[in-house]
Amino acid sequence: GRRAYAPPAERKRFYQNVSISQGEGGFEINLDHRKLKTPQAKLFTVPSEALAIAVATEWDSQKDTIKFYTMHLTTLCNTALDNPTQRNKTQLIRAAVKFLETDTVCYRVEEPPALAELQKNEWDPVVAWAEKRYNVTIGSSTSILGPNIPASTKETFVSHLASYNMWALQGIEFVITQLKSLILSMSLIDRHITVEKAVLLSRLEEEYQIRRWGNVEWAHDYDLCELRARTAAGTLFVHLCSESSTVKHKLLQD
User: Fold this and answer.
1) pLDDT, tens digit, for every residue of 36-64?
2) All domains of the chain, ordered by start, with CATH?
């Protein structure tokens, strides 16, 4: 996926208290008496109170050392605020829909038969749900060229994604790059499947091979936890950026 920033991996924690406040442009994050800024030195301002609380919680949960690589919501906000790739809404949507051409759940194997059967049993229901939910044709293929996705299907997804704001679209693209699948991502964001299920389906072949041949335990567990964390953060970011109501109770007041 696209990595907009490469901040230092870790830094000594330099603040005691984290709080949020409402400014003219939205909700701000305060580290003691300092306002949080983006990598391009813009004021870190988010559109919803719920998102501000979630970001503040990321900063508050850091211990003696700030581990920037664990702060996925902060990174997504920085990307939305700075827009380092300078893309507009149309470009973001087209980039997301382009994943349909190489969507994980559309590429099938013929051999070994056990894996082919597993893909059919696990992926077909998600594809069928998406076809019904969006009234489109998607299909699957065992060809290296992949399925022939109709233009009308792509345009339907373009129209659907256009209903999201720019912030949410940044999150959607982030989730898609984690799962390598537009279909799994939309199923997750629409709450049809859980984060755990989406990650499992995106790693189906790898999980099959692990069950058959075993795995390097610590490496597999780390990769799986990291993927779940990124996918969960991206999904939460989309929901919080699409949230119109405010949170009544600030979680960090005590």
Assistant:
1) 999 999 999 999 999 999 999 999 999 99
2) 11-82 (3.30.2180.10), 89-242 (1.10.3580.10)
